[in-house]
Amino acid sequence: MNKLLETIIENNREWTQKGKVATYIPELSKANPNHLGIAVYTIDNEEFCAGDCNVKFTIQSISKVIALMLALLDNGKEIVFSKVDMEPTADTFNSISSLETRNPNKPLNPMINSGAIVTSSLINGKNGSEVIERLLKFTRKITNNPNIDINYNVYKSEKETGHRNRALAYYMKSIGIIEGDVEEVLDVYFKQCSIEATCKDIAKIGAMLANDGVLPWNGERVIPRQVARIVKTIMLTCGMYDASGEFAVKIGVPGKSGVGGGILVAVPSRMGIGVFGPALDSKGNSIAGWKVLEDISKELDLSIL
Ligand code: GLU
Predict the structure, then answer these.
(1) Using CA atoms, how far apart are residues 275 and 18, in angstroms rounded to an integer?
(2) CA–CA distance, 177 with 157 (Å, rounded to integer)
(3) Does the active-site annotation cover 20?
(4) pLDDT tens for residues 144-161?
(5) Is 171 tagged catalytic?
(6) At what angle do helices 182-193 and 113-121 cross, to 10 degrees?
(7) Overall pTM > 0.85
(8) Is 60 left (phi over 0), alpha (psi -120 to 50) or beta?
(9) Given the residues 65, 118, 185, 259, the one annotated as active site
(10) How confident is the model at residue 131, as a pLDDT?
């Protein structure tokens, strides 16, 4: 397996030259566009990796999956989906117009920024610091990595420049979707996006989801089977921005990407995959990471569709 992963990484390295690292969060522009790595963690506890699989990156939108799990655990699906819908979107991840024109009372899904800011606001905690502590603790558990932490440079950079997210959040406060202190909710959101991880960490989150909510390394159930099912379904339909349909056709498994260049994949009943390549395509997905996933999906016949 390691050999196969190495070959796939080498065959796709040239794709890193065809994308661009994100610059709208200034700190992300410092990423090395040549990086490309993959890790696989099976539900039978085998780990494989190749390329730059030990390089840390900020998980960005991948954190929306983690926040959704906690919001569902804390509130149940009825409450969560009364405040955020579960429909795919053809709009960009930070679209304001879809919020105003489609359904003014509910963001389309928890994987776009407006929806994710709502799910973050639904996580229990007496203040923002308690919420982010719970998010970190949960992330450490599902990655089996006690060293998971926030990259404070990226956090500061995003907080200073996140005017569009601020606009989304204040709009949602004005119409009552967000309760409580908007700046506190935004602070949680900016911090969760700035959590740092490697492909290996991400692959383990995928393995837990693939294993229906049970950590493969110790048999502990961390989320109910039904929460795992909801999260995987939303990843499959909404996880890759406005390229989710194409991803489902070409790769055929639940995935969630982030503008830091990571992609989290859960292959039901088989494995989790973490991919990292910070050079992005025009829709914000890792350009080479996507190609790597296409190859591995073909090689291992991963598509569930
Ligand atoms: N922190 C980023 C933002 O809100 C996340 C976007 C992403 O990864 O898609 O703009």
Answers:
(1) 17
(2) 26
(3) no
(4) 999 999 999 999 999 999
(5) no
(6) 110
(7) yes
(8) left
(9) 259
(10) 98
Return the pLDDT at 103: 66
Q: Which parts of the chain sit beneath pLDDT 50? A: none
Q: Phi and psi (nearest 5°) for 262?
A: -90, 150
Closest atom of ligand 1 to CA, residue 194? 1
Note the pLDDT of residue 213.
98
Nearest CA among 121, 101, 124, 98 for reference residue 109: 98
**Which ligand 1 atom sits nearest the alpha carbon of residue 94?**
10
Output the CA 25–ligand 1 centroid distance in Å: 9
Instruction: Report residue 292: phi and psi, to 5°.
Output: -60, -45
Cβ of 114 closer than 6 Å to ligand 1, yes or no, is: no
**Predicted pLDDT at 104:** 66
Give me the pLDDT at residue 88, please. 87
Residues with Cβ within 8 Å of 281's Cβ and at least 6 positions away in sequence, in order, are 19, 243, 287, 290
Nearest CA to ligand 1 atom 7: 61
The helix (H) or strand (E) run that includes residue 150 is strand 149-150
pLDDT attached to residue 91: 67
